[in-house]
Amino acid sequence: MFAKIKITLLRLLIGLFAALPLPILQLFGRLVGSLVWASQGRSVRITLKNIELCYPELDPEAQRVLAKQSLQETGKNLFEMGKAWLAPVDKTLTLIK
Question: What is the pTM assigned to this prediction?
């Protein structure tokens, strides 16, 4: 019973976010990514390590900037997915650059 309620609430939330304009969703995503970065939690440590391994030629400050941007883009992806899933295909294709 509780699982059905959770799924229903999640679908409702995704639907509500999907109705918002893309720039607003991207703003929310960047904010969430920035909050994750500020938390300095596990996701930040893993992202920093991956950037360090993939881009050893970058100095530590450039790696930190790239890691923060990566988390912000991940946050944007989180908010954009509902719109991509629920919008008509022709509408979604117009949003792709």
Answer: 0.82
